[in-house]
Amino acid sequence: MKLAVDVHFDGEGAQAAAVAFDAWDAPEADRTYITRVPHIEKAPRGELDLRELPCVLQLLREHALAPELIVIDGFVHLDAQDTPGLGWHLHHALAGRTAVIGVSKTSRPDLPAQCEVNREEETRPLIVTCVGVDLGAAKARLRTMHGKRRLPTLLKLVARLAKGSSPA
Fold first, then answer.
1. Separation CA 154–CA 93 (nearest Å)
2. Which long-range contacts (CB under 8 A, 24 or more apart) does 81-84 make?
3. DSSP per-residue codes, 50-112
């Protein structure tokens, strides 16, 4: 099983959501999961914002999920020197047993062009970083995900669920 996860912060708390899928080209989730986190500490000023990490870990624990791979909205590495981002910290927190693919709609200045992937012509590329899976394979899998737009269908769905919207 693979999961796409997202976290939405509202007030002092957050809602973490996940959609489970087996096939990369699946048009809909096999299952969805939601976890409410009532209180989240603010990130220390000037430090990497890792507030999503405990939310994702709580979601995995609460629903007894042990995916082979997790797709996150964010970065695994922050630059070409592999400075750890949220995805790297998630991979480490899961003892390296779960591969993580980070997908971002915006680039970072120090990421190489090889991290870019276009899903449709004439749109800005998505930025892909990963750990536990080859970058070329991660980009190929993202390209095959269902949806005709820039962002795959399942990533749109998990973002809506995290924000508390209905899956439709």
1. 24
2. 81/110, 84/48
3. -THHHHHHHHHHHTT---SEEEEES-SBSSTT--B-HHHHHHHHTTT-SEEEEEESS--TTS-
Angle at 151 between CA 135 and CA 73, to 5 degrees: 60
CA distance 104 to 111: 12
Q: Cα–Cα distance between 16 and 60 in angstroms, integer?
A: 10
Q: What is the pLDDT of residues 22-39, one digit of tens each?
A: 999 999 999 999 999 999
How far apart are the C-alpha atoms of 138 and 20, rounded to whole Å? 17
Strand partners, 35: 16
Token pair listed for 161: 């669920």
DSSP 3-state assignment of 42? Answer: coil
What are the boundaries of each domain within the chain?
Answer: 2-162
Residue 166 predicted with pLDDT over 70: no
Q: How many residues does the chain have?
A: 168
**Domain 2-162 falls in which CATH fold?**
archaeoglobus fulgidus dsm 4304 fold (3.30.2170)
